[in-house]
Amino acid sequence: MKQLPLFPEQASTIAGRxxxxxxxxxxxxxxxxxxxxxxxxxxxxxxxxxxxxERPRPVEGSLPLEILWTVFTFGLFMVMFFWGASIYSTLAHxxxxxxxxxxxxxxxxxxxxxxxxxxxxxxLHIPVDRPIKLIMSSQDVIHDVFVPAFRVKGDVIxxxxxxxWFQATKPGxxxxxxxxxxxxxxxxxxxxxxxxxxAQYQAWxxxxxxxxxxxxxxxxVMTGEAxxxxxxxxxxxxxxxxxxxxxxxxxxxxxxxxxxxxxxxxASAGEKLFRDLGCITCHRLGTQGRGPNxxxxxxxxxxxxxxxxxxxxxxxxxxxxxxxxxKIVAGFQPIMPPYEGRLSEEELIQLIAYIKSLK
Amino acid sequence: MIVDRVEPRENYLNADYGIKSWxxxxxxxxxxxxxxxxxxxxxxxxxxxxxxxxxxxxxxQGDLVQAETYNKLFTMHGVTMIFFFLxxxxxxxxxxxxxxxxxxxxDLAFPRLNLASWYFFILGGLIAIWAxxxxxxxxxxTFYTPYSSSYSTTYVAVTILGIFLSxxxxxxxxxxxIVTIHRMRAPGLTWFRLPLFIWSLYATSVIIVxxxxxxAITLLLVAVERILRVGxxxxxxxxxxxxxxxxFWFYSHPAVYIMVLxxxxxISELVxxxxxxxxxxxxxxAFASVAIAVLGFLVWAHHMFxxxxxxxxxxxxxxxxxxxxxxxxxxxxxxxxxxxxxSISYQTPMLYAFGFIGLFTIGGVTGLFLASLGIxxxxxxxxxxxxxxxxxxxxxxxxxxLGGLHYWWPKISGRMxxxxxxxxxxxxxxxxxxxxxxxxxxxxxxxMPRRYYAYPDEFQVLNVMSSAGASILGVGYLLxxxxxxxxxxxxxxASSNPWPATGLEWRTPSPPPTExxxxxxxxxWEPYEFRPREEMEVIGKLNINxxxx
Amino acid sequence: xxxxHSTVLAHHFDSIEQQREASSLGMWIFLVTEIMFFGGLFTGxxxxxxxxxxxxxxxxxxxxxxxxxxxxxxxxxxSLTMALAVRSAQMSNRKSxxxxxxxxxxxxxxxxxxKLVEYGHKFRDHLVPGFGFSYPGPExxxxxxxxxxxxxxxGLHALHMVAGVGVLTILLILAGRGLFSAEYYTPVELxxxxxxxxxxxxxxxxxxxxxxGLHLKGS
Lengths: 359, 549, 219
Known about the structure:
The structure holds 3 protein chains of 3 kinds. Chain A is an alpha+beta fold. Chain A contains 8 helices and 12 strands. In chain A, strand 1 and strand 2 form a beta hairpin. By secondary structure, chain C is mostly helical. Chain C is 80% helix and 0% strand. Chain C contains 8 helices and no strands. Chain C starts with a helix and ends with a helix. Chains B and C meet through helix 6 and helix 7 of B and helix 2 and helix 6 of C.
């Protein structure tokens, strides 16, 4: 039976709900289809033509019958609609405490970046029983992250961020496919999601970060404050904001005390970039500069010059960096130059991770 | 079988001879035959691609062809089958032949435009074939940007030009049908006396006229973007790739109904004739066609549920998608009810009609899975979708097309097809089809993405089943090709009304004369009246007396 | 009278009335497809203008409002002469039909000539996407997008004008031969419908392309 599975493994919190709806539809539609087919067979046999001259009596339509089956099917469809919509609504709203992981798709590989700075290609290590939020963008064409065992899928689109979240329920290794046709090696753009027990995951994180911090980010160790709290919210570092020191400890991943995971974190790389690009001259931290103060801006509602308001999510930050003129914050001049074409997707992610870490 | 022994003196086939008399004809029946030959050729080309695709998928590794070749194969399979077979098949072949005959007209309203439509079709088709021979195209038939506009290095612009030109062919046909149906019905042939095939073609034409220009301009923009290297859909140059998807699906979802509505019309004719019954709930079936045409334009974004649509946008499109499913369900129920107390014969066209209802039902209900947001996220872009639309397109449209071709073959060719072989063909196609595509539903739910030329090992068993089914299906399609050609010479001559059926097309000789009717018919009866009117009036009275107790 | 009927009535119609109704319905449906055709472009234009309002206004300032305005007047006048041409045909007034057709054609050609001059200016200023487009400033890419839509929309419109002038020229020749009269003027009427349609498209194009952000520029 292992040769011919009929249903995929359930390995996320949503998988059971999707399957339940699937079974419901399967039973309902299977029953109705079977009813139609059996009726056709029954009629075909019972009213089989017995002589060439046979002319049956005409049967006119029946209004009550038409109304009955129209209303009945419509009612049934509405059940399917609401049930499906409720699952979709869950999928569309990642929990607040989800772990952010950044995904960049390119022909033909997946690049994953953890907030702590760990990078992976075509492999994604995640802890079990913890909501994971993927913030995804593409460097070239449209791709799509698809993990069948989790029953989730999301397009990865160039020029914007899309998000996808899930919570794995079983440790193991699962397929990760690219589900949107993206060119020659589309079917080679596959990877693995490796779900680990929290302890193993921590070990993997620290092992990985030491390796990578040395190889990729030769920045000096700046922060001495490893957070001790287990909750991500509790791990902010006010010192990082005012002194301009690496606020990497704000990264939710730096849970395990003493691992030093914050050193090569995305946010600290973003902070470096923030200074190197000179953003800091206008966007001063703590005090008001020529540009809006970015501390605590993420997730807030922002009043714009044209009277509208916008929520400062990843896409808004992205647009504001690349095309600052598009949505000017009320009370500021449109003086910022556009950064389109001057930043790679990786650098954008670092800057955004940094801005998100400013609390 | 009622068979005439006498050769009809003059008909549209022997009215004139020579290549020129065919290539310059304005007779709708001859143009229908030109279309019949051309779409059959395109079906064959698309079929060869399908065979190669299924061969490659026999093994998990990509070993038969290169990845790039495979991508071109599925693209060109889609392009030829959709734009050059499925869209024109029923309207341009059966519709062209039958619209004037069914409404008692001498020709379509614009005969020269009709011929022009065939030339546009052939020109577009030849350009597409040329693109294939020159090196092919690898974007998928959906031409998603920015891959198609900035990344693919294949013959995208040429293929688009071919599709663009064939679009004119569709528009001309649709325009011709609408005007003809409005203005050229025989005296007494009111809207509610029209055959349901005409109703469905009318609805189809409305979709063609409204939708085709939009996809034409959209594809033109992709071509412009490629040629001039400017950003219309490529975000790297300031464009929006999702705008392309909105514009593309605005046409291409209704295009599904362009392909399947005429098929539903054919089935209504077949079910009525071979059960000798008027269609149960005639008006509901007729209005269902119109409802599908209208609602079909409001559901395009259900192809984009995982493309970052807003939650409420997605919910609205999901809701409307369920809405559009209702009229289809109504049709299935009405066809089934038509059989009740009928006089049902199992001749080949009816076998195709039975096959259609079964397969279309499966295709339709799996559409409900896709319309459901929660399930769609998991199954979209997998083989589940592939299986679903093949059940609609192949199990629906092609079954109906073949059923219709058999049903009207005596009228078209003046000859009967061999019944035994035809029944065998229908059976083989039905079995082959299910073997090919049913396993793909399972594959899709298991998570096999579409457009993969190599795949993980655990998917192999189902893929082998599917490929095996495809070989049976291939044989099934060859059978009618052979015996229909054979019957043109050796088949017994057909009477004017061999089944017998009720439409006006059966009240003129087989094959019909060039002017269709010796004199314009005057219609005094309701559609699908299998008994003379006087007799029915008597029965009507009897019914009241009989069945009141 | 009967003679002229039989020459213009196609074999598959029962009456000249039926033929006229069919042709007219056909023309209307054709215009619907045209609306959908331009509709796709308008949708694209509206989407991008919403995304980049400032840049589109900036691009718009490089268009010549004077020439565009003159062209608008020219085209509206040509619609008037076209309407008069149709009326002349209905009145069986062959001479004035010919005159009004010539006037309409000339106005159409004037429009195309002015358009050509405008295109020439854009070439000179390197504002033609795909043909050496260059634009100073950070938003060059999106200004180019504006000009893509400008050229695509006005180009497609100009193509329709060329087709219209061609059709009118054929009608002119036929009118010279005296084909049209109060009994049979369907082709003139249908060409009129088409001409007005092309005119209306311009009425939409002119403000959308030329007049964006004019109030901002003035202040």
